[in-house]
Design brief:
heterodimer, A: mainly alpha, Four Helix Bundle (Hemerythrin (Met), subunit A), 2 domains, 7 helices, about 80% helix, about 0% strand, B: mainly alpha, 11 helices
Chain lengths: ~180, ~350
């Protein structure tokens, strides 16, 4: 049962990712990205990480992608032009990507003791997760939150400067960037 | 219980809940029309059936029979997906709501709830956050400036108020120590009305924030800017007709009911009686189950009544007022509520 679900949703995930690259309209790409994120959430759930799964849906699929579609709708971005791509990308880019992926894969395969993830019925409850997060991993957790706070302040400061420069014309962008910061 | 039995029971429960939910949606529309009618000193629908009780059926038939127009310039795939997405998400989120005491008959899984999930509260929030796309895509794919404006307003409003809504629930979760809706209800059911989160739990500030944010989340008056008919003709569903329009309509009312259910579960003791142990439980299991269902429905009905009452009484906000209210008042207030509740829980 778990294996069937895993295969189905991994398939959705890959199909969404490939569709994201192939679509020529930005809004279709954005929607494919949402499919990818929701399928990833189901994969997390299959690994027993229920909180992570729902957080993935709420934060990424629900909040961040809404802002993406929001921007696409506001700019009314239309179809992008198809080009054949530069020759440099073909000759250097693809081999480089393959080489990097190969290096990463060999490093992972040769490292011992990375731990294993197994599809199972066992579920890590939110209580256990928060206990680990607020005792063992307290420092990284707090550092990350300070980092996000700095990003929010930066976004607000930049939006404020823009408004001073151009007068009252650009209120909309201020609101959008404020929202991006909050998330 | 074998997996086949489990699937059969789940399908049965889903079917019953969906039918009841759709009926409830139809009659909420009638309730709104009757009540707003009385508030405005007129009768409301009164011709079809006794007291106009068959009006929803006739309305449904009308929506089915109307011509389904798809304008030529719409972006078809998204135009067709949008109403399905909106109604689908509205109906899915009811799946984790417990309607009554966990009774089971003949070895069945507990009735009155489709799925008892550990993180039920977060599932509801997650599914509603996906529901935004129904509205946003409807507005964008219609290729109509009014639709687009309505959709932009709506998604901005939803994203802004979702934060205040989520933060207002943290106080309740802190008190219950769980995200499971059943556990949250059981935690506040010990002394009846005295231990409900909104009174004994000191979460009335959270309840106020939740109520405001929920009105905005469901696009209801006084925050119904996305479909402000005096400025935007119809908002995001201007270009929709027939059943596609009806699906958006049903999604809105289904969301209202879900929001009422969540408020009942989190702040008003869910299916438990307000009298606590003053009325001893009877011997009959079915009577008790029915009674718990009765209290739940009564509380949700009170919320729907309040919804309509507010709609009939308050004027619409302006857009900048809406954003100011959400970001500058509700969100700081919600954060203060979290800090206050945590301090109280730590030092009591």
């Amino acid at each position: 049962m778990h294996l069937i679900l895993f295969i189905v949703f991994a398939g959705f995930c890959l199909a969404g990712a490939i569709n994201l690259l192939l679509q020529s309209h930005p809004i279709n790409s954005a929607l494919s990205l949402i499919v990818v994120m929701v399928s990833l959430a189901v994969l997390y759930l299959l690994l027993g990480a229920e909180f992570l799964a729902v957080a993935q849906v709420i934060v990424y699929a629900g909040a961040i992608m809404v802002l993406f579609t929001f921007v696409i709708m506001l700019l009314n971005a239309s179809r992008e032009e198809r080009t054949l791509g530069s020759r440099a990308a073909l000759r250097v880019g693809f081999p480089a990507v393959v080489a990097i992926l190969a290096i990463i894969a060999t490093v992972i395969l040769h490292t011992q003791g990375l731990g294993v993830a197994r599809l199972s019925d066992g579920i890590t409850s939110t209580e256990e997760l928060s206990a680990v997060l607020f005792t063992k991993l307290l420092l990284p957790f707090e550092v990350t939150s300070v980092l996000i706070l700095i990003a929010i302040l930066g976004a607000v400061a930049m939006a404020g400067h823009e408004e001073q420069g151009t007068g009252n014309r650009d209120q909309g962008s201020e609101k959008v960037s404020e929202r991006t910061g909050e998330k | 219980m074998t997996i086949l039995q489990f699937i059969l029971w789940s399908v049965l429960k889903v079917a019953v809940v969906t039918v009841v939910m759709l009926l409830a949606v139809a009659y909420t529309v009638l309730l709104e029309r009757k009540l707003v009618g009385r508030i405005q000193n007129r009768w409301g629908p009164s011709r079809v059936g006794p007291f106009g009780l068959l009006q929803p059926l006739v309305d449904g038939a009308k929506s089915f029979l109307k011509e389904d127009i798809i304008p030529t310039c719409v972006y078809r795939p998204l135009y067709l997906i949008a109403p399905i997405l909106a109604l689908g998400c509205a109906l899915i989120s009811i799946g984790v709501v417990p309607f009554g005491e966990p009774v089971s008959i003949a070895g069945s899984p507990p009735l009155f709830q489709i799925a008892n999930v550990n993180i039920g509260l977060l599932v509801i929030l997650g599914v509603t956050s996906i529901g935004v796309y129904g509205i946003a895509l409807a507005g964008w794919s219609s290729n109509n400036k009014y639709s687009l404006l309505g959709a932009l307003r709506s998604s901005a409003q939803l994203v802004s108020y979702e934060l205040a809504l989520g933060l207002s629930l943290v106080g309740v979760v802190l008190r219950a120590g769980s995200l499971n809706l059943r556990k949250i209800v059981e935690q506040q059911s010990t002394q009846g009305i005295l231990t409900w989160n909104v009174f004994g739990g000191m979460q009335f500030v959270a309840f106020f924030i939740y109520l405001m944010a929920a009105y905005a989340e469901t696009n209801r008056s006084p925050f119904d800017l996305p479909e402000a008919e005096s400025e935007l003709t119809g908002g995001y569903h201007t270009e929709y007709s027939s059943m596609k329009f009806a699906m958006f309509f049903m999604a809105e009312y289904a969301n209202m009911i879900t929001v009422g259910c969540v408020a009942t579960l989190l702040f008003f003791g869910g299916w438990t009686s307000p009298f606590g142990d003053l009325i001893p439980p009877s011997e009959n299991v079915f009577f008790d189950a029915g009674l718990s269902l009765f209290w739940f429905v009564l509380k949700v009905f009170a919320f729907l009544f309040l919804y309509v009452w507010v709609r009939g009484t308050l004027p619409r906000f302006r857009y900048d007022q809406l954003m100011n209210f959400g970001w500058r008042w509700l969100m700081p207030l919600a954060i203060l509520n979290i800090v206050g509740t945590s301090l109280w829980l730590a030092y009591r």
